[in-house]
Amino acid sequence: MRNMTDSCEPPSPRAILASRSPRRKELLQLLVPAECIEVVPPRDSNEAGFSGLHELPQIEARLAEVARAKAYDVTDQIRATSGATPADCPLVIAADTVIVVSDSAGRSHVLGQPPDDDTWPEIVRSWFRDYYAGQTHLALTGLCVQTETQKIEQIVRTEVTFTSDVDRHLDWYLSTGEPRGKAGGYALQGAGSIFVTNIAGSLSNVVGLPLEVLWEILKSLGILTNPSERRG
Questions:
Q1: Three-state DSSP class for residue 38
Q2: Per-residue confidence (pLDDT) for residue 5, from 0 to 100
Q3: Out of 96, 118, 165, 171, which one is annotated catalytic?
Q4: Between these two residues, 77 and 231, which has the higher pLDDT value?
Q5: What are phi and psi of 91, to 5 degrees?
Q6: Neighbours of 183 (CB within 10 A)
Q7: Exposed, middle or buried: residue 16 (CB in 10 Å: 0-12, 13-18, 19+)?
Q8: Any catalytic annotation for residue 73?
Q9: Coil, strand or helix: which one is 213?
Q10: 166 partner at 20 to 30 Å CA-CA among 34, 40, 106, 128?
Q11: Three-state SS for 156?
């Protein structure tokens, strides 16, 4: 997908990405010129968790809450450091992505990042065998886009199906170290793609930023237009 804007002249304002993820920044650059993007991570890296939530509506509500909190945190930072009024605040884009699997009883579980210790390979191995092999799971992104006058929130779902024969490549995959620091223990944009047999929905959503949905939101706000429309 090529850039849909060529410069940060109007209608491309300064865009604040409320995320520490370099992958989200790379994806956003496909819609907004790099020189127009500023990364401002939330001050507090501690987010509301998903412990005890086993119904999809509950998980989605919590995910929306996390994305909303990120957007609020960053907007507050901008106002505090620059003295900007609400009317002066730029476009803020916040997102949070989780992997949701189902157990044998049909209950949903959110898989976060593997533990940051020596147990991570076995944890990821159990995830692949118990939740991924031959099954379909969900990648969910809570998206919050905020301007000085509007706030648009959306939950984006993508269904990801893995091969049943995960053991064939699992030892090799663990040896790459790629699962570390990845929600659900795999990276679709990397070597983890070797296990995927089908994707229903946005591929970029699994990586961390649903470009198709974000494009429509920015267009509805009058921030992006098609090149042919701008020439007119």
A1: strand
A2: 44
A3: 96
A4: 77
A5: -70, 130
A6: 18
A7: buried
A8: no
A9: helix
A10: 106
A11: strand
Residue 120 pLDDT > 70: yes
Q: Is the pTM of this model over 0.70?
A: yes
Give ∠ CA 23-25-29 in degrees, rounded to 5.
120
Q: Where do the domains of the chain lie, and which CATH numbers do they carry?
A: 15-231 (3.90.950.10)
Compute the half-sphere exposure of residue 88: CA atoms within 13 Å on the CB side of its CA. Answer: 9
Task: Determine the average pLDDT of the residues in 211-226.
Answer: 87
What are the residues facing 102 on neighbouring strands? 108
CA distances from 49 to 59, 165, 179 (A): 10, 31, 20
pLDDT of residue 227: 46
**Over the chain, what is the mean pLDDT?**
88
Q: How far is CA 19 from CA 50, 57, 127, 133, 190, in A?
A: 19, 24, 26, 31, 20
Site of tokens 């901008």:
78
Supply 36's token pair.
């127009």
Does 38 score more than 70 pLDDT? Answer: yes
pLDDT score of 20: 87
